[in-house]
Write a sequence for this structure.
């Protein structure tokens, strides 16, 4: 069986490919990836589609919950979630 992967990049503890679990959503990945510096204010979903790569900004509140539940997409093979350096709460800078 072919293993499906998602890619995490940016301010995550261990950037790189991860196995894609069946039924895995954007919010599940955010909840499961503790950041080096607090919580993300947003993540960017990069997805390869018929027209090429699309990028969508997904806003996250101070509790790590998505601002818009409609953006809690089911992840697909090859999706990338970018955790920008900007975070909510105390930072180490």
């Amino acid at each position: 069986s072919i293993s499906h992967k998602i890619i995490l990049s940016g301010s995550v503890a261990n950037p790189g490919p991860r196995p894609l679990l069946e039924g895995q959503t954007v919010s599940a990945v955010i909840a499961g990836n503790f950041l080096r510096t607090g919580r993300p204010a947003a993540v960017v979903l990069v997805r390869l589609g018929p027209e090429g790569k699309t990028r969508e900004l997904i806003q996250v509140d101070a509790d790590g919950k998505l601002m818009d539940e409609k953006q809690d997409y089911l992840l697909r093979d090859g999706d990338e979630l970018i955790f920008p350096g900007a975070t909510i709460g105390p930072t180490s800078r």
Observations:
- The two ends are 44 Å apart (CA to CA).
- The longest strand covers residues 42-49.
